[in-house]
Amino acid sequence: MSKISVIVTTYNIEDYIEKCLESVLSQEHSDLEVIVVDDGSTDSTPSIIQRFSQLDPRVIPVLMEENTPGGVATGANIGLGKATGEWIGFVDGDDWCEPYMFSSLYQHAIKTESELVIGDFRNYNQNDGSFYDPSDRRHWLKPIPKDKALSSTEDKKKLLKFNPVPWRKLYSSSLIERNNIRYPEGDYFYEDNPFHWFCISKAKSVSILERVVCYHRMNRVGQTMATGDSRLLAFYDHHDTIYNWLKSNKEYGNYKEELVLWVVNNTCWIYDSIEQGLRGDVLSRLGKALNKHDYTFVLKVINSQHMGNKGHGLAELSLRKGRAAGPVLLEGRAKKLWYLMQETRLYYKNYGAKETIRKIYQYVQVRSPVKLNFMSNGTKKNSMKEFESDIKSVRQRLEFSDLIRLLDDETKGK
Predict the structure, then answer these.
(1) Is the separation of the CB atoms in 132 and 195 below 8 Å?
(2) Which end of the chain is more exposed for a tag (fewer CB within 10 A), N or C?
(3) What is the CA radius of gyration of the chain?
């Protein structure tokens, strides 16, 4: 069996590191090197790591004298630089693994000929001792093949929606080194998101192991992820990092829609979670992120069936605040039609076809110079067939592609 390098990152977790290392050293797959990178802990974590290294030569301690701004990313990158195994795994220093974790991931990788294997995990609530499913459970329940490697771009797009955490995966070292993949380092969190995108987009093949292999501790004292401050804005830095990576690796065309959806969908929970005084910053940062993409393409994505009402609304607000915001730059007829299109779309989703037709009729009769053929005699139509005809007429007159061309013409001064 091939050698596996397990990278464990730690910082002030003296109450949990023993259980973590015991679970790693008790693996059925015994050909391991365990690289433990401590980011300048001020408690007894370093001494515990040293004790384990004296008891088991597979433990390689890397004890940093001071805490680094890059946090987990710096420690993980140091571990990657020291890894000598054919395969690489990660473990958070306060988590723990099943004894079969790395043997199961490795065997599945060999069986499916995959460069990357994604296992399942469960969260552990430190407050009450309960276990619960991770946030990506709904994606596991979708009909994604779990007994073979996924290599097509369309299949890998689905995997981008999975929780990006690295500590339930096994990576081929050739995948990491061939593409020079590292974590982005900076004074922010959530750096596993770009790393996930890098690996998924460049892996020749990825497979899913439908088995719980580890447990992630939540709500412990000192945990840094539960924040509502400006650190949540790191997601927009990560968007830019992913955008630049995809561009430089000639993968942007394959994943640009997923990236727009990713940044908008993350904004939905960021907007609710962040301090109220920072919500304007959220919209500004989202607007700048969306402005990196082709404006017409962004409009198409946020008006697609893949975008929910909340995401659509936040994206529209952010575009108004951004440099290339359509409603801000547009004037006259184009600006009015822009708002009409947005209101019509949302009204249709909330109230259905009949009420939308009635609303459009009222608008047309009172304000618009455009005259629609339906209901011109003032009689009330009741049949669905007639309403369906009306809908077709409205769609023809408010055709999205035509409106986009109109908006483009207006912004160019035509």
Answers:
(1) no
(2) C
(3) 26
Residue 272 CB-density burial (10 A; 0-12 exposed, 13-18 middle, 19+ buried): exposed
Q: Assess whether pLDDT exceeds 90 at residue 124.
A: yes
Q: If we measure between CA atoms, which residue out of 75, 78, 23, 13 comes closest to residue 48?
A: 13
How far apart CA 225 and CA 229 sit, in angstroms, is: 11
**Which residues have C-beta within 8 Å of that of residue 392, sequence separation ≥ 6?**
none
DSSP secondary structure of 135-191: TTHHHHTS---SSS-B-SHHHHHHHTTS---STTEEEEHHHHHHTT-----SS-S-T
H-run or E-run covering 97: strand 96-97
Separation CA 150–CA 240 (nearest Å): 27
Which two tokens mark 35?
A: 């690289």
Rounded Cα distance, 271 and 275, in Å: 8
Q: What is the pTM of this model?
A: 0.78
For residue 263, give the nearest of 288, 229, 244 by alpha carbon. Answer: 288
Kindly state the helix (H) or strand (E) to which residue 268 belongs, with its residue range. Answer: helix 252-273
Q: What's the full length of the chain, in residues?
A: 414
Residues contacting 307, CB < 8 A, separation 6+: 261, 264, 301, 315
**How many CA atoms lie within 13 Å of 30's alpha carbon, on the beta-carbon side?**
3
Burial pattern 377-404, b for ≥16 Cβ within 10 A else e, equals: eeeebeeeeebeebbeebeeebeeeebb
Q: Note whether 235 and 193 are within 8 A (CB).
A: yes
* pLDDT above 90: percentage of residues in the chain: 62
Which H/E stretch holds residue 116? strand 116-125
Residue 23 contacts residue 12 (beta carbons within 8 Å): no
How does pLDDT run across 335-388, given as a tens digit for each residue? 455 555 656 666 666 666 667 766 666 655 554 444 444 444 444 444 455 545
Long-range contacts at 51-54 (CB < 8 A, ≥ 24 apart): 52/18, 52/21, 52/25
The single residue listed with the structure tokens 């990491």 is 176
